[in-house]
Amino acid sequence: MAERQERAIRTRESILEAMASLFIEVGYEAATIAALVERTGLTRGALYFHFPTKEAMARGVLARAVTREGILPQTHKLQEWVDLGLLLAYRLPREPMLRAAVQLSVDPRARGLFGTRWPDWIDLGEDLLVEAKERGELLPHAVPAEIARLAVGAWTGVQLVTEALPDRLDLSEEIARLYQLILPNVASIGVLAKLDTSPYRAERLLGPAADADAAGKPLT
């Protein structure tokens, strides 16, 4: 029984990964079940057993978008908030599921059908910023809800522009610059000097996972 459940979980994951790749390559509207059948080698019945519709697959991809993976407890909550954005910037080019989730979030057709996960990212960021405010890490005028909302919008804009530019700037470096512009306007002076906004911070936080990714090898 346990083996069967594990096999079902692996199959479900492989379906989501294959569909995520299709969403990235051709967009939500053009991604078809026929193409998914060809890519996975599964029958339509097997696909529909796990996901009854393409929309359900898209929702499954979006469900993986919001994560605190890699975020470790820090002396300052504001650092954890920065880490949230830096980690996403590092992982996005390397993880098709995340890339597909972002693409679905900006696709008008997909967004009209099942919305986006941006509100969840905003809520996650706001929770950290509220704690930072309570600890005196933010300037008196800084409003956590506003910072969280505008930061997610700015992050998304940077990602889309970076991807579209012909010279393909490094997303981690661009997001690091974004935080370097935002923080002096919201962080208290004493905390600001202690924050790490290096574009290499996410790689250090992920540790062995990042090393394995860079080497193209699975973790053992």
UniProtKB/TrEMBL annotation:
The keyword Ubl conjugation does not apply. InterPro entries: ArpA-like, DNA-bd_HTH_TetR-type_CS, Homeodomain-like_sf, HTH-type_TetR-like_transc_reg, HTH_TetR, Tet_transcr_reg_TetR-rel_C_sf. It comes from the Bacteria. Residues 9-69 form the HTH tetR-type domain. Coiled coil: none annotated. Residues 32-51 bind DNA. One of its GO terms (molecular function) is DNA-binding transcription factor activity. Keywords: DNA-binding, Transcription, Transcription regulation. NCBIfam families: ScbR_bind_reg (NF041196). This is Gamma-butyrolactone-binding protein.
